[in-house]
Fold:
Amino acid sequence: MIDKVRGSNPDFPYQPQSFGIAGTTTTYADEDLIKSEEHILETQKRQAEELKLGVEKWMKEIPFRMQRIIRYKFFNELTWEEVATLIGRKCTAESVKKEFQRFMCEN
Structure:
């Protein structure tokens, strides 16, 4: 819904102006749908926060080297080659990837 209203500047000199206003009309069905969607989003947000806390707790329990690999690869979204470079010690992308895969299979 679009409409126009007339008004003026609040300060001197008072000059008449035309303002456009816009809005929407909602129905009770729309409001129920919006509330339902908000409830779903809140539930998903709460589940994501619980998952995040679980991951943070798990990360504290694993070896520091594996923490670094996981942070570089998944949190910083680096390639395996970039992870290997940051880990150092003549690591290759394939060796770091295999180390991660073995760790995940064992845990």
